[in-house]
């Protein structure tokens, strides 16, 4: 375990003078120093007169230009009063996984991708913006009293509402910019006049727009030199495959991974799809003998620790199988994922009796920040949820759970934990796109919960894929399940590592 492996694809912006770690790049951004992993794509931004105004780190896709390359020029001068409104239109149009540092003549700002897939935290005291806590803090950890380490490390709860385990370091808010002049965040999207109700007449039109934009994003990603597509028996990966299309798969590796009983069925479903579309499928069964050495206790402990350090102490991985699956290679490919597409099925509205109004207790349970039966903690977080709702633009109040999904949940569980820690490849989501979030949220949750949008994507993009059963359909065929499971290597089960190890590390860091 070394720095380069743990903090792959990460970055740090600071006013301090520093020597970049090995395989990292140091560059100037005005009077700031920006260091980042050399594997991280970067694009310089210029105004119409050729004046440098900013840097994009990560992979971003423009609807007209496709994947942004070494530089991009905007049709405006940094001295014009409407500069920021023009710039924000440019950012709105970008999909992908990225962070942007931008400036005009008087202000420096940080912008992010729509769901903070490219993680970002900031430390106002030390004037640092970074991808994770340990890169944003050069002093001892000051425990945030809101965060219960037992909840976090033993029970697998989440952090939210901008908190980290350190009181001085805050997680950035998606769809807000961070002013480097004041270290205050300001919401810039959606604007107060944005509508999130397409109505019945526009719902079908929205579906067509969603498919077209998703196809465009997927095809842009497929133009990259090294692409891999994980395939399961679920909706999300099949939606992505449908939007890519069978004629655009040649330069990619499509694979399926078996890490437990359920993913055995994913492998079966993926096989059926590969046979139907006639493409090579790489099957990875991490319980096969070739991976046996990867489960040695010392290796698993090291990988758990790497996961923990990479995400800034925000969570631990309970699954050795997932860790082995992640570290099976370090090929630095772009890994096309469908994590954000849960909102297509209105997942955050699940089990609601009514789709109207705001049930804060329901919303808070979906964030899983504490045990709902712990009244004191639940009331504390409930007050934070209520405060967050009160600050939303009025147009968003009909879609509070959608916004909670991509502004409160995903930045902490996906960008801030999963993507940043499982870093053998650059994982990104074609659905990380404000126009797609807007169009999807505008379709009524009741319609989405019925599965209409999920079905429509495949029906319109690749209807033959509906002939292949999904994993939840395969579960209803016990004989097939038994036969499938018996044909694979025997699953290994591992004891859960004590949370005390991680609590102890965090407490020790607070004493340094």
Describe the structure.
- This protein has 512 residues and is α+β, with helices and mostly antiparallel strands.
- The protein contains 18 helices and 19 strands.
- It has helices spanning 3-6, 83-93, 133-136, 149-153, 199-222, 235-244, 261-277, 297-310, 320-326, 360-367, 375-390, 400-421, 434-442, 445-449, 452-461, 471-474, 478-487, 500-509, and strands spanning 11-14, 24-29, 32-37, 42-46, 52-62, 66-67, 71-73, 95-103, 108-112, 121-123, 128-130, 169-171, 176-179, 185-187, 227-230, 252-258, 281-285, 334-336, 426-428.
- The strands form 3 sheets. Strands 4, 5, 6, 7, 8, 9, 13 and 14 form an 8-stranded mixed beta sheet that branches.
Give the uncertain stretches in residue-range form: none
Computed Rg: 22 Å
Question: What is the helical fraction, as a range of percent?
Answer: 25-40%
Q: What is the number of beta strands?
A: 19
Distance, first to last CA = 22 Å
Strand content: 15-25%
- Cα shape: globular
- Helix run count: 18
Mean pLDDT: 89
By helix and strand content, what is the structural category? alpha+beta
How would you characterize the largest beta sheet?
A: 8 strands, mixed
